[in-house]
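To close the section, here is one more complete example, presented without commentary so you can practise reading it yourself. The ligand is cytidine-5'-monophosphate.
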Amino acid sequence: MSRAESAPVLTIDGPSGAGKGTVSARVALELGWNVLDSGAVYRSVAHAALERGVQVDDEARLIELCAELDLGFSPGHDGVQVCLDGRDLGDALRSEEVGVMSSRVAAISSVRHALLELQRSFRRPPGLVADGRDMGTVVFEDAPVKVFLDASVRERARRRHQQLKEKGESVTFDRLFRDLEARDRRDRERSVAPTLPAADAVIVDSTRMSVDDVVARILSLVRQSLP
Ligand code: C5P
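Output:
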């Protein structure tokens, strides 16, 4: 096993809006570890497809887009910063349009397969915090610490509504609630890599927890599990 493959990994999986991005970045900063935002990997493919007019049924072109991805991640106090082709693309990747397209692209098994090695290449010493849907079940199945971060749909919609209001975007709570429910269902019921906790994951329900509490709980799980 190479030094990179033996680096420890903490996987944080869970549905949209459970706070994985913020929590992963904070935990990575505390531990001094690298970070992988795998949602941003799928969002980058979706962004490139929308920009270049590639349709979801054009698997061959989607796979070409996967091979061209040049992505970098760094943890910050507000979340994970994403660089695509050397540019900070954070907000462009977070639009609802890119979100919806990314969940359609993510349901294609050849696309998921094409992105496996890229995601695994972020595993480097001293360690990696990887957040997404299938980090503990597929991509880093051998991770020593796995967390499934959940929260009720209502609470996740409330948080997202608050974020969008702060950015001056007007979307109704009901619309967000319905969109989240639909996206959850698609991500949970799809045949490839559905969003489900790994058998050895610890489930953390953040509905009534502050970000600080969630970070503290996860850090204690990491410290208990690692030498
Ligand atoms: O987490 P985020 O909302 O950024 O992810 C965007 C979409 O990418 C999700 O709706 C999901 O369909 C997909 N995804 C995935 N597997 C991952 C991470 C994200 O299928 N590991």
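Once you have examined the tokens, check your reading against these statements. The chain has a mean pLDDT of 92. Residues 173-189 form the longest helix (17 residues).
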